[in-house]
Specification:
The protein is an alpha+beta fold. It has six helices and 19 strands. The strands form three sheets. It has a seven-stranded mixed β-sheet with strand order 4-12-18-17-13-14-5, covered by helices on one side. Strands 6-7-8-11-10-9 form a six-stranded antiparallel β-barrel. It has a three-stranded antiparallel β-sheet with strand order 15-16-19, with no helix packed on it. It starts with 6 loop residues before the first helix and ends in a 5-residue tail after the last strand.
Length: 331
């Protein structure tokens, strides 16, 4: 399967993995044998328990944001969709949207426990070198109700392999609806039991495919995350370029601190770098800096209901360019 055929195949692979086709009970640090489009890194039950206890409030407060990925697309993507448009429909709960008005960018002004903010959160993890970091992730539809979507560089970075022997991140903990109020994690947090990325990112660090997934375990009360939140975003691919998006993230560079979500709203352009246009897509967002990596791009977003389909994720930017760029989900 060619590296460009990633979106539908990877979504199908991840949904199958999350639905129980792969039991995450392999030895510590195991990478499950290759799928045509995706690699799954499984965590043992002991590692999942360790992640639950590792992220104390003090550690979460002291951690630094993961740097956004340098934009280095290696694969040219199509100017028009290469196949039919597709999607996985969201799980919809009526009457849960925050009432906010469109704006270019800024700190989220709606309730953290209303959509879309409640399905977006901070993804904490440790890097192969042992340090802690955070990215942004969002809850997307899956058979076992345990799946979050993020950036590829938030699950794997081949630059660690030569020094540390592995590029996989570990000790995942996802805290949806994180905010700066009195109850900073209103729904609690969930540990990661596995991570998925595609081979184009894993082998080549191809910015055109900088996305990944984390498979979550249940929380301390035995709940699946989708059951606790009551909803999940849909995902889609092969949608028109030039679409309009609501983008979320937890940036950590001043004036942002990674505690409160930020958002922006705008129409996508094609990648502005030389030699790869059309390729990745970008939206003018001055606030999606380090820590916002992996935040969802919601297409067909409704300001009244808070619903949308995830059509890309925050990857990185270019010096002197006000846009945040992300993968164009194609087939």
């Amino acid at each position: 399967m060619g590296s460009r055929r990633f979106a539908a195949a990877l979504v199908a692979a991840v949904l199958a993995l999350a639905g129980g086709a792969v039991q995450v009970s392999a030895a510590d640090g195991a990478t499950v044998p290759p799928h045509p489009s995706a690699a799954l890194h499984a965590f043992s039950a002991a590692q999942v328990r360790a992640a639950q206890s590792y992220w104390t409030p003090a550690r979460r407060g002291a951690v630094k944001p993961l740097a956004s990925a340098p934009i280095v697309p290696l694969t040219r993507q199509p100017a028009v969709p290469a196949g039919p448009a597709g999607h996985v429909a969201p799980v919809v709960t009526a009457g849960t949207g925050a009432r906010v008005s469109p704006m270019s960018d800024g700190q989220w002004s709606g309730s953290p426990t209303s959509l879309p903010a409640k399905d977006v959160g901070v993804l904490y993890f440790t890097t192969p070198s042992g340090g802690g970091a955070w990215c942004t992730a969002s809850v997307v539809v899956a058979g076992d109700r345990d799946l979050v979507l993020t950036a590829g560089h938030c699950v794997y970075d081949k630059n660690y392999v030569a020094t540390n022997g592995s590029g996989w991140m570990g000790n995942y903990q996802f805290c949806p609806a994180t905010n700066g109020g009195a109850n900073q994690t209103p729904y609690g947090c969930w540990p990661g039991r596995g991570a998925v990325t595609n081979w184009s990112w894993l082998n080549n660090r191809d910015g055109s495919y900088d996305f990944g997934f984390v498979l979550l375990g249940t929380n301390s009360s035995g709940q699946h995350i989708a059951d606790a939140l009551g909803n999940q975003f849909g995902v889609e691919w092969n949608q028109p370029r030039g679409s309009t998006y609501m983008i979320f993230g937890y940036p950590g560079v001043a004036p942002y601190n990674g505690v409160n979500p930020a958002w922006c709203y705008g129409t996508a352009i094609n990648y502005a770098g030389s030699g790869y246009n059309p390729d990745m897509i970008g939206v003018a967002c001055s606030n999606m800096n380090h820590g916002a990596s992996g935040g969802p791009w919601l297409r067909q977003y409704s300001f009244s209901s808070g619903w949308g389909y995830v059509d890309s994720v925050n990857s990185g930017g270019l010096a002197g360019d006000p846009h945040i760029y992300g993968s164009y989900f194609d087939t």
